[in-house]
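Why do we care about 3D structure at all? Because function follows from shape, and shape follows, mostly, from sequence. That is the central idea of this module. The next example makes it concrete: a single protein chain, its amino acid sequence, and then its structure expressed as tokens.
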Amino acid sequence: MGAIAAGNTPATELIFARVIAMIENDDDTAYPNHSVFIPADASDFGIMIRRALLKAKPIVVVYPDGRERLIPAPSISPESA
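And the structure:
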């Protein structure tokens, strides 16, 4: 990973690198459709997670050390429950 752009966290830079690699390799099988990538080191991490959950989207949490965790989309939207 290269230099971190101003305002980006290390996990955000990893997300950019992964998305670019998927585009360049024409690989859309690595993550579920409509996945929301959220950097674990973002200052508004909790807000970002809540918004994605309310939209019933699969979430990929990316940590600064490169680990990631997939949170599958809920089968029922919290708004309709």
